[in-house]
Amino acid sequence: MKRTWKFGLVVLILVSCAGCDCVTKHVAREWLAPRPPISVLNDWVRFEYVENVGAFLGLGSSMPRELRFALFVILTGVILALTLAFIARVDDLGLGPLVGLSLVAGGGVGNLIDRILNDGAVTDFMILGIGSLRTGIFNLADVAIVAGVVTILLWSLGARKETGNAA
Question: What predicted TM-score, i.e. pTM, was given to this entire model?
Answer without folding.
Answer: 0.89
